[in-house]
């Protein structure tokens, strides 16, 4: 598909703008300044619309081409402020630190935990180990999934020490939001975080593969679009 048909700017310009925004802790106005130094004039609201449009597209393409993961998983959620209120970003990584899935929810409750875990298990199969915290809603969701035979009882573990891996991984998302304005809706927050998470996931995979070329967010997004 031509994801750039009808745009007033070339594909390369759009990829640089959204790629840099997803990769670094920059505001929309920072991106505008970077482009202006290269002779490209664009309004910050245009960059914002690009971010909101392409974040979900990159997420869909990334999910379509995911590779196999390790069979030991870490599940946790982190807080994201949306229009003055807390929302909850559910995240899953494997024992190698590679991103498996993520989802932004309005509430941190049984329903959110259950649907996130069920999709994770449906997509990736049964793990040998699933590590969670001891939050009551999460434990209730895990018990329900065990009863439905999505997960074996012996695979589930509650371990603060083992979950340190994903706690550390949350930091990238937190750092990224320092320079940016607060989200104004769940829709725009989800779209933006989709792009941030995908770029973070690709970068982790590239670093693990010990690429000699180094990481280029624009090249990686090009490859994702072409896959």
TrEMBL record:
Coiled coil: none annotated. Residues 71-205 form the DDE domain. One of its GO terms (biological process) is transposition. One of its GO terms (molecular function) is DNA binding. This is IS6 family transposase. The keyword DNA-binding applies. Keywords: DNA recombination, DNA-binding, Transposition. Signal peptide: none annotated. NCBIfam families: transpos_IS6 (NF033587). PANTHER family: BLL1675 PROTEIN. It comes from the Bacteria. The keyword Transmembrane helix does not apply.
């Amino acid at each position: 598909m031509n994801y750039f048909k009808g745009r007033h700017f070339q594909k390369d310009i759009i990829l640089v703008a959204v790629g840099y925004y997803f990769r670094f802790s920059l505001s929309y106005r920072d991106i505008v300044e970077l482009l202006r130094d290269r002779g490209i004039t664009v309004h910050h609201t245009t960059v914002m619309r690009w971010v909101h449009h392409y974040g979900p597209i990159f997420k869909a393409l990334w999910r379509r081409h995911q590779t196999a993961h390790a069979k030991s998983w870490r599940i946790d959620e982190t807080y994201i402020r949306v229009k003055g209120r807390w929302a909850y970003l559910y995240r899953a990584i494997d024992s190698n630190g590679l991103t498996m899935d993520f989802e932004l929810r309005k509430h941190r409750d049984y329903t959110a935990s259950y649907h996130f875990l069920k999709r994770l298990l449906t997509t990736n199969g049964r793990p040998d180990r699933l590590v969670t915290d001891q939050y009551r809603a999460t434990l209730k969701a895990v018990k329900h999934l065990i009863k439905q035979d999505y997960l074996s009882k012996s695979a589930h573990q509650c371990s603060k020490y083992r979950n340190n891996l994903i706690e550390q991984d949350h930091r990238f998302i937190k750092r990224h939001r320092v320079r940016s304005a607060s989200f104004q809706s769940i829709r725009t927050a989800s779209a933006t975080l989709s792009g941030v998470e995908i770029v973070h996931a690709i970068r982790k995979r590239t670093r693990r593969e010990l690429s000699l070329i180094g990481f280029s967010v624009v090249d990686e997004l090009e490859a994702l679009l072409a896959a």
